[in-house]
From TrEMBL:
Cellular component terms per the entry's GO annotation: extracellular space; secretory granule membrane
Name by which UniProt lists this protein: Copper type II ascorbate-dependent monooxygenase C-terminal domain-containing protein
Keywords, alphabetical: Disulfide bond
Alphabetized GO MF terms: copper ion binding; dopamine beta-monooxygenase activity
GO biological-process terms attached to the record: dopamine catabolic process; norepinephrine biosynthetic process; octopamine biosynthetic process
Pfam (any one): Cu2_monoox_C
Copper type II ascorbate-dependent monooxygenase C-terminal domain segment(s): 2-65
Protein source organism: Cherax quadricarinatus (Australian red claw crayfish)
InterPro entries assigned: Cu2_ascorb_mOase-like_C (IPR014784), Cu2_monoox_C (IPR024548), DBH-like (IPR000945), PHM/PNGase_F_dom_sf (IPR008977)
């Protein structure tokens, strides 16, 4: 999308990237990730003048997930925190040996699928009793977790509008800030496009009919869906009192 007019971004301004997914037809939990069957909200922005910034990410704090699901405690908190923040130390000796093995052909360099959700297998619950020794991955995979509509709605609200942990990196893959920053969802009034009443609908509403032959006013909500073969489908939803 190209803006009709350039917009100046100032310190303190907020850019929001929001993606909508419909996974209601799926029979199992959809996790975030980089695969085509996973969810990830990704956007590229063109701006000037250029600054030394490559990527910025935001994620809801794990404490938000724990609180909503009723998880009170987990094992290896510090290690899990480093894993989820990508702050694990690299074993240079092991990496050097692997690089050498790849060069001489004694190790395979086959591409394997990366599932970010599998990191949640390392998050094992310590309390409460009903989740004891169960990974967060399995808890989120269970249908019973999502059958509690109140908990599911609360989780969705907090994940979207709650605090997020943000992190940015330079083009040299260095962190802009050593520690991720927690930010709140900005408060603002969304602009609303003016809705003009359909001329045909207004004409029907204004028409004068005989009291002995009065028909209900036609107020269909409709939309047009275009197809690739230059065809279109009109979908409409009448009110209950419009059906005779």
């Amino acid at each position: 999308r190209i803006l009709k007019e350039e917009v100046t971004i100032l310190p303190g301004d907020t850019l929001i990237t929001e993606c909508n997914y419909d996974s209601t037809r799926r029979k199992q939990t959809t996790f975030g990730g980089i695969g085509t069957e996973e969810e990830m909200c990704l956007a590229f922005m063109t701006y000037y003048p250029r600054v030394n910034l490559s990527v910025c990410t935001s994620t809801p704090p794990m404490e938000t997930i724990f609180e909503t699901l009723g998880i009170q405690d987990i094992y290896n908190k510090e290690k899990i925190g480093r894993i989820l923040q990508g702050r694990l130390e690299v074993n240079e000796e092991d990496e050097t040996e692997l690089a050498s093995a790849l060069r001489n052909g004694s190790a395979s360099s086959e591409v394997t699928e990366v599932l970010l959700s599998h990191m949640l297998r390392a998050v094992v619950v310590k309390a409460p009793e009903k989740f004891l020794n169960t990974s967060l991955y399995k808890i989120l995979l269970k249908k019973t977790t999502w059958e509690e509509s109140q908990a599911a709605e609360l989780l969705q609200e907090k994940v979207v509008f709650g605090r997020h942990s943000t992190s940015c990196r330079t083009r040299e893959d260095a962190r802009v800030l050593e520690q991720p920053q927690a930010v709140s969802y900005p408060r603002f009034s969304a602009l609303k496009s003016p809705v003009e009443q359909c001329g045909a609908r207004k004409q029907v509403q204004d028409q004068q009919v005989n009291d002995n032959n009065r028909l209900p006013l036609v107020k269909f909500l409709h939309r047009v869906v275009m197809e690739e073969a230059d065809k279109y489908v009109m979908l409409w939803t009448p009110r209950k009192d419009d059906i005779i």
